[in-house]
Amino acid sequence: MKIGSHGFSRELNPSLYLSSGRERGAVDLIASLSGIRGVLNSDLSLAEVSKFATNFGKATGSREFFLARDSRTTGPAMSRAVAAGLLSLGSTVLDYGIVSTPALFRESRLRQRPAVMVTASHNEPEFNGLKFVVDGAGIGKETFDMVVGGISGQVGEFRAGSIRHGRNPSYVADLVARFGSGSCEGVRVVLDLGGGAAIAHAVPLLTQLGCQVASVNDSFGVFNRRVDPVADDLALLRKIVKEKGCDVGLGFDCDGDRLVIVDSSGRKRTGDYMLTLALSEMLAETREKNVVVSLDTTQAVDDVAKKAGGQVFRSKVGEANVVELMKERGARLGGEGSSGGLIDGSFNYCRDSMLAALAIIRALKQRGRSFYDSVPVYQQERMAMEMPRTKALKGIKKLASKYDEADLTDGFKLILPEHSWVLVRPSGTENVVRVSAEARTSDAAARIAKSFVKKLRELSG
């Protein structure tokens, strides 16, 4: 396998097309610090999965690895291929079976072992992939390069390792200890588990905290809606919450790191709103008031951080970039609004949907449904336009030359009057430019986004 010559930058969060030998025009395998993903036996072979795992094993030099997967039908085959690659190095593999990504990250952090999560996260069921974890955090650029590029030198001697079942992760027990058994007594929660890994822990965890819990789509690998809860309308979840008078609904993705909430009126809320709500609760209970979020996250986070006496720092888009800046700034809290991705560095260095949900549920217990109205809300418009990356970069450069005050951390971001902003950035994984705008009203956000789409088209020529 060779790296395709698509001209993508290999910076903090590189995204590369890896040639799979398919016909021209096909969508190739995507590899980035966030993971590797594709369609098995189309973009990705089991031999390649095993090779990536072997490279990861060599890069870390560990003799023991953790392995887990989400609920996709290709998961068992890919898990065996990962295990084969690691076992060939003489390593011990502890296979946890189906657990969530946050649960595996937590286990890796506590026990200081590298781990591989077999998942394509929020991609549709035909996709699968790999996430690599070292000491409870995603891998850095150096390890990523070794995984996708291989380790130089002679092929080592084959050594047979061993594989055994991993013990139950401590994730549920740790969350119960953190929030307190019975601390959410009586809160009525409906879960749309999406057929994914959150099935393994969500109901018993919430039950221990005292919630009254009902669930739908709670059979592993049965996908009755879109995997990404952000992209799905969550019609069944909204209906149940409204008809049954529940306090909150929670919609998860396949590996349990993304979350969308439905409020007590049956309204699906945005990821930005959910992140703001969770952060407002967490900032109230910690002395560490600074927050790191991605450039495309709502300014409502700035409002709640300022109110708490903190400051917001913004990273490039992407979980790996947020985590990197959190460590650099010594910030405990962070996240990405587009996916509702809360990150609490004191617990996990990844998006942790369950942690965010529990912060919100506990606040509902303590403050009632008025908690939903406790944070400011802005409106966003997100648009995408097809454009070759080289052409997009040319247009963004010209756009930046017209606005000296623009933030060029990741594409082009401009703060506008009347509490609004716009972000124009090329996708790292496809020939698409994403234009995001935020304002007080939906109409204003749409006008801003459309005007900058037009400007970019004109300038990119």
The percent of residues in helical segments reads: 25-40%
**What's the CATH class of the largest domain, please?**
Alpha Beta
Q: What is the percentage of strand-forming residues? A: 15-25%
Measured distance between first and last alpha carbons: 35 Å
Structural class of the helix and strand makeup? alpha/beta
The name of the CATH architecture of the largest domain is 3-Layer(aba) Sandwich
**Biggest β-sheet strands, sense, barrel:** 9 strands, mixed
Query: What's the gyration radius in Å?
Result: 22 Å
Shape descriptor reads globular
Walk me through the topology.
Layout: E1 15-18, E2 29-32, E3 35-39, H1 46-60, E4 64-69, H2 75-87, E5 92-98, H3 101-111, E6 115-118, E7 127-134, E8 137-138, H4 141-149, E9 162-165, H5 171-179, E10 188-192, H6 202-208, E11 212-216, H7 235-244, E12 248-252, E13 259-262, H8 271-283, E14 291-294, H9 300-308, E15 312-315, H10 319-329, E16 333-336, E17 341-344, H11 353-367, E18 379-386, H12 389-401, E19 412-416, E20 420-426, E21 432-439, H13 442-460
Parallel strand pairs: 4-5, 4-6, 5-9, 10-11, 10-12, 14-15, 14-16
Antiparallel strand pairs: 1-2, 2-3, 3-7, 6-7, 7-8, 12-13, 16-17, 18-21, 19-20, 20-21
Describe the protein in words:
The chain is of the alpha/beta class. The protein has 3 domains: 15-165, Alpha-D-Glucose-1,6-Bisphosphate, Chain A, domain 3, CATH 3.40.120; 171-373, Alpha-D-Glucose-1,6-Bisphosphate, subunit A, domain 3 (Alpha-D-Glucose-1,6-Bisphosphate, Chain A, domain 3, 3-Layer(aba) Sandwich), CATH 3.40.120.10; 379-460, 2-Layer Sandwich (TATA-Binding Protein), CATH 3.30.310.50. The chain is built from 13 helices and 21 strands. The protein has helices spanning 46-60, 75-87, 101-111, 141-149, 171-179, 202-208, 235-244, 271-283, 300-308, 319-329, 353-367, 389-401, 442-460, and strands at 15-18, 29-32, 35-39, 64-69, 92-98, 115-118, 127-134, 137-138, 162-165, 188-192, 212-216, 248-252, 259-262, 291-294, 312-315, 333-336, 341-344, 379-386, 412-416, 420-426, 432-439. The strands form 4 sheets. Strands 1, 2, 3, 4, 5, 6, 7, 8 and 9 form a 9-stranded mixed beta sheet that branches. Strands 11-10-12-13 form a 4-stranded mixed beta sheet, with helices on both faces. Helix 2 links the parallel strand 4 (64-69) and strand 5. The longest helix has 19 residues, at 442-460. It is globular, with a radius of gyration of 22 Å.
